[in-house]
């Protein structure tokens, strides 16, 4: 019963995010609205972590399985995609490196700001 309640909370917030997507004229997916609503709820204490934790962990655990149909679809269209394979791989590798570098530098900046605040006190 606990998992059903937690699923209802998560999917209810996702549905509210989809409603925002339909009402607001912004090019933002409903799932992103839902994620921000869940984050805001958790940060403000409106939603307690215990209300979503186990189901959230389960969804994270099975997330790789959600990519299986996509990969099978790509394998079915291999002949069509073969011509674009090298550019797609290059873009994927370069964008992954760029994201990792920016994330690392941003994290270093945040850690530096946090440590500076601790030294000032």
Topology of helices and strands:
Blueprint: H1 2-23, H2 30-44, H3 53-66, H4 68-76, H5 78-81, H6 85-120
Walkthrough of the structure:
The protein is mainly alpha-helical and 121 residues long. The protein has 2 domains: 1-66, no CATH class; 68-121. It has 6 helices and no strands. The longest helix is centred in the C-terminal third of the chain and has 36 residues, at 85-120. The mean pLDDT is 90.
Give a quick precis of the structure.
With 121 residues, the protein is an all-alpha fold. 83% of the residues lie in helices and 0% in strands. It has helices spanning 2-23, 30-44, 53-66, 68-76, 78-81, 85-120.
Class by SSE composition: mainly alpha
Q: Name the helicity range.
A: over 70%
The helix count comes to 6
Strand content: under 5%
Q: How many β-strand runs?
A: 0
Rg over alpha carbons: 20 Å
Sheet with the most strands? none
Globular, elongated, flat, extended or rod-shaped: what is the shape?
A: extended
Gap from first CA to last CA: 47 Å
What is the H/E order? HHHHHH
Q: Which stretches of 5+ consecutive residues score pLDDT under 50?
A: none
Task: List the domain count as a whole number.
Answer: 2
Summarize model confidence as the mean pLDDT: 90
